[in-house]
Amino acid sequence: MIAELGHFALILALAVALVQATLPMVGAARNQRQWMAVAGPASAAQFLFIAVAFAALTHAYVTSDFSVLNVAQNSHTDKPMLYKVAGVWGNHEGSLLLWITILALFGLAVSVLGRNLPPGLKARALGVQAMISVGFLLFILLTSNPFARLDPAPFNGSGLNPLLQDPGLAFHPPLLYLGYVGFSMAYSFAIAALIEGRVDPAWARWVRPWTLAAWIFLSAGIVLGSWWAYYELGWGGWWYWDPVENASFMPWLAGTALLHSAAVVEKRDALKSWTILLAIVAFGFSLLGTFLVRSGVLTSVHAFATDPARGAFILLLLVVSIGGSFSLYAARAPWLKMGGMFAPVSREGALLFNNVLMATGAGTVLLGTLYPLFADALSLGKVSVGPPFFNSVFLPLMVPMVVAMGIGPMLAWKRGDLAGALLRLKLSMLLALAAAAATWMLQGGSAGPWWAAGGMGLAVWLALGTLAEWAERVRLFRAPLAGLPHRIAVLPRSAWGMTLTHFGLAVFIAGMTASSAWKSESVQTQKIGETVTVAGYAFTLTDAHEVAGPNYSALEGTFTVAKDGRPFAVMRPEKRAYRQPPRPTTEAAIHGTVLGDVYAVIGDADGKGGYVTRLYFNPLVPWMWAGAAMMVLGGLVSLSDRRHRIGAPQRARAKA
Amino acid sequence: MRRSLYLLPVALFLVLAGFLLGGLFLNPRDIPSVLIDRPVPEMNLPALAGRPADSGLASADLKGRVSLVNIFGSWCISCADEHPTLMRIKAQGVVPIHGIDWRDDPAKALAWLQRNGDPYDRVGVDPAPGRTSIDFGVTGAPESFIVDKAGVIRYKHVGPITPKVWEATLLPIIVELNK
To answer: What is the pLDDT of residues B8-61, one digit of tens each?
Structure first.
C-alpha cells in the first residue's frame, strides 16, 4: 500500500513538473506575473510529492518489505540499519529516486531563498529545473520503477553488495549526487540567462554560491569514494582512472573552472559567454556520468546493472538537454553584451588561463575515458586506456596550472604587474627549487622517479605562494604589527576560503606525489610468528582466527608491528565472507602517522598454516586526505561569507 | 568567423552523442580471443593417472570431429558449479568433451572426477605453471573452447557453462559446425 502511494506520488510529481516546466516559461515570455508565480508553489508541491515517494521507498527498506522487488533484490533482514537505509540508494532505481529528490530540493530552495530574484529569471530557471525533473521522472516511471512488486514475496532478500556495506560508501552517493545535481542550478540559471539574453553580476552573485555548494559536495563525495577505495579494496591505491571515477572527476574539473569564471563575471562583468558555456558543460558532464554508469557502454569496476533501454533513454535526455542548450548557446551567446576588458596579464587573465587548462584537462579525461568506445565504434579494435595515459597527459597539463595558481592571486584585476608579482614571490620560488633539490637528494637521485622532485617543488611553491598572498592581504610585514589581529579579523571569509583551498591543494599534491613515488609493498605467504619488514616496519603475524559479524564471518589477522626494535602498533586486518550475497571483502588495517600509512591486508589461508599477506608503507597518504579536507573546509568557509550568502546581496539592496 | 565558433560546442557534442549511440549497440565485455580461427596450440599432454593411458590430449586428437575443450581443476569452485552441466552435455552425446586439468594434483583430480562424475573423453594433465593453458590464453578456470573438425578454435567461453549458455550459445555453434 505504501509502495503504491510512493508510485502514485511520483506520477503526481510528474504532472506538477509538467505544469512547472511550461506555465512559468510562457508567463515569462508574455510578462504575465500570475503565470510566472506558478513556479514557486509548483516547486514546493513537486518536492512534497517526490519526498513522499522517497519516504515510501525508505519505509519499504527499513521494514524489509520484500514484496517490493527493489527491496528483495538489494536488502536483507540481517543487514545493520545503516545499510538498510543506505540500500535505498545502493541500486539503480533507488539512486535515481535520490537524484530526483535532491533536484526537487534544489528547486524548492530557489523558490524559497530567491524571493528577491528578478521574477523573469526566477520563473525561467525554475521552468528549466522542472524540465530536467520531467525527463528524470519519465525515466524512473517508464524504465526504472523502484516500487515494482514481487509476487510471491520471498522470505528474505538477496542483500546489498558487501563492498557497499561500509560507512564511507553509505554517504558517498548522496554527497556525489548533491554535487552533480547542484550543478543543475548553474545550468538552469545559464539557460534562463540565455533566454533572457542578459548575463550580469547579479546573475553571477546568484550562481556562485550554488556552484560553490555543489563543488563542496562533489569534492567531499569524490574524496570519500577515493578514501573508501583505499581502505576497502585493499590494493593500497586510491585512484584508478576508472571510467566511473572519471565520470565524477570531469564535472569536478568543469565545476572548478565555472566557480572561478563566475567570480570574474561577478567582479568584473567579463568572461560571460565562457561562464555560460562552462555551466552547461559542468551539468552536461554530470549527465554524461549518469549515462556512462548506467548504459553499459564502458567496462568499469563499479557499474550498475546496465540495460540498453535505460542507456538509450539517458542518451535521449542528454541530447535534448545538452544538445538543446548548446544550440541555444550558439544562437544566443554571440549577442551577449561584452563586459569589462582586461589585459592578458591580470587576475582575469590568470583565471582564464587556468580555466582553459582545466577545461582541456577535462577534455583529455573525456577522451581517455571514451577512447575504448571510439576505437570499438570505428573498428580499430578493443583497447583499454589505463593510468599511463592519464598520468602522462593529464598531469603535465596541471603543472602550468599550479604554477599560475601561485602567481594569479598576486595580480591585480584588469591589468597586473607580472614582474612585481614574481619579485614578491622570489622567496617562494627559491624555496620551491630548494625543496625540489632536497627531494632529489633524499631519494638518492635517479633511484626514485624524476617527477617526484617536480611534484614536491610544485607543492612547496603553491603552499608558499598562497601564504605569501595571505601575508600581503593582511600586510604582515608592511604595516605595524599592532594592527595585525584586526587586519586578520576583518579579512573576508571568501579570502580565507581561497587561501585554505589553495593551501589544501598544495598539501594534497605533496601527499599524492610522495605516495605515488615512494610506496613500498610486499606480498608473501606468512606463517604465524614470521616477520616481514617493509620500509623499516617489522610486521610479525602473531595470530589469525575466525570472528563473527552481524551478517558475515571473517578471518582476522593480528600483526604486531615494530619500528627500530620498539613496538609501534598492533594491527588487525580482516578478510570477510558475507553470507548474503556470498562475497568476500577485505578490510585493510591502517595505522596512520604524519609520515605515512602503515597498511596491512590479510588474504586466504594456504592450507599449510600460512596466510597470504600484503603489507605496505604508503608515504604521506594522510596528507592527501588532510589536503582534501582543507579544500572542502575552504569551500565551506567561503560559502559562509556574507557576500556569498544566498540571497543576501538582494536583500541588502531591497532595504536600501 | 566569430559566429561559427559558437557552433563548435554543439557540433562536438553531436559527434560525441553519435558515438555514445553507437556504443549502446556494442558490448565492451565481448573481448574476442586472439586464438579464434587459429589452430589449437601445439600440445601433447599426458593422461590423468588412473584413467586409460592413451586418454591424454594432443593437438592431433582434436582433428576430425567438433569438440569442446574444457579447462578445469579440482581446486576450482566454479568448475564444480559447472560440472553437472557438463555431465548433461555428455549424456546428450552431441559433442565429445575433452578436459585439461590445470595446475592440479592428479590424485585429487581423479578423486574429484570419481566423486562428481567424469564427462570427459580425454583428460590431459597440465601441471603448474600450466604451459599449455597459457598457450590457450586461459586467464582462469573454467574456460571452454569449441574446436572444429580441422582442429581450429572457433569459440571461447570464459567462466562456467550454465544450461542457458549451453542452450543459447554453445549448442547452436556446435550444430552449425557439424553441418
So the answer is: 889 999 998 888 888 777 765 555 566 777 888 888 899 998 898 888 999 889
pLDDT tens, residue by residue, A91-111? 888 999 999 999 999 999 988
User: Which is more confidently placed, A29 or B159?
Assistant: A29
Question: A299: which chain B residues are within 8 Å (Cβ-Cβ)?
Answer: 28-29
Instruction: Provide CB contacts within 8 A for A653, sequence distance 6+.
Output: A116
Cell (9 digits) for A233: 579494496
Residue type, A311: G
Q: Where are the alpha helices (DSSP H) in A31-145?
A: 33-37, 39-62, 69-74, 81-86, 92-113, 119-143
Q: Which residues of B touch A311 (CB under 8 A)?
A: 24
β-sheet bridge partners, residue B43: none
List the beta bridge partners of residue A534: A537
Report in angstroms the alpha-carbon separations of A412 from A130, A355, A359, A397, A633. 41, 18, 24, 25, 26
- Measured between CA atoms, the residue of chain B closest to residue A299 is B28
Cα distance between residue B122 and residue A45, in whole Å: 71
**Nine cell digits for residue B112:** 574429484
* ipTM confidence score: 0.82
Q: Is B64 left (phi over 0), alpha (psi -120 to 50) or beta?
A: left
Please report the number of interchain residue pairs, chain A to chain B, with beta-carbon separation below 8 angstroms. 72
Compute the distance between CA of residue A619 and CA of residue A623 in angstroms, rounded to an integer. 9
Domain at A1-161: CATH architecture? Up-down Bundle (1.20)
DSSP conformation letters of A271-314: -HHHHHHHHHHHHHHHHHHHHHHHH-SS--TTPPPP-HHHHHHH
Laid out side by side, the sheet with A610-619 consists of A520-527, A610-619, A596-605, A589-592
Beta-carbon-side half-sphere exposure of residue A483 (alpha carbons within 13 Å): 11
Strand partners, A571: A559
- In CATH terms, B33-178 corresponds, of 3.40.30.10, 3.50.50.60, 3.30.70.560, 2.30.30.100, to 3.40.30.10
Whether the CB-CB separation of A135 and A317 falls below 8 Å is answered with yes
Q: How close B14 comes to chain A (CA, Å)?
A: 7
The whole-angstrom separation of Cα A71 and Cα A150 is 10
In terms of CA atoms, which chain B residue is nearest residue A325?
B10
Give the residue extent of every domain in chain B. 33-178
Q: Taking Cα atoms as reference points, which of A489, A500, A493 lies closest to residue A634?
A: A500
Which of helix, strand or coil describes residue A89?
A: helix
Instruction: Sort out which chain B residues have CB atoms less than 8 A from A247's CB and list them.
Output: none
CA dist list (Å): B51 to A126, A508, B54, B114, B130: 76, 62, 8, 11, 20
Tell me the three cell numbers of residue A85: 537505509
Q: In chain A, where are the structural domains located?
A: 1-161, 166-338+349-386, 392-518+627-634, 520-622
